[in-house]
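Q: How would the structure tokens look for this protein?
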Amino acid sequence: MDDEQLAEQLKHGHRSALTPLVERHYGALIGYAYRLTYGDHALAEDLVQETFLRVLRGIHTYAYPRPFKPWLYAIATNIARNYYASADQRRTHSDDPDDLPSAEVPDDLISAQDEEQTVITALASLPDLHREVIILAYYQGLTLAEIADALHIPLGTVKSRLSNGVVRLREKLKTYETT
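A: Here is the predicted structure in token form.
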């Protein structure tokens, strides 16, 4: 059964249809939220849990046969935006040495983590409008039409934001390479 059929079943009160939707999309949504939250895995998990709660509460607004995936990512995007828009949310970084891993980590894993953190830092420096389309396109694999649907913007705007965002991201990554 495809996502749209499951969503329609969920809409009609079959709560068991939520399980396969969560199983199909949880991992990808964690990756999306992780990048939107500047690499904060715990916060990403919280936002994804809230996304599925909102899916359950708002399934009555889902209009079959609208593609489910962009609808789901629209919810996740709005939750992340709302989180950062709230006045009481502030990002802090811990300098506590107890927060650092204690085990030895192989050099190649450290290098891969450093590269991933560099990309996350570069993405975080972009405006949300560019960051969201880049993550949805390159990390989540959504088509341009799905991104337009998820973000409720015209297809031409998606193309423009993606093009401009990639240029800005490359510039940011170049500055990190030289430092």
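The chain has two domains: 1-89, 108-179.

Helices lie at 3-11, 18-36, 41-58, 68-85, 107-124, 128-139, 144-151, 155-178.

Upvote if useful.
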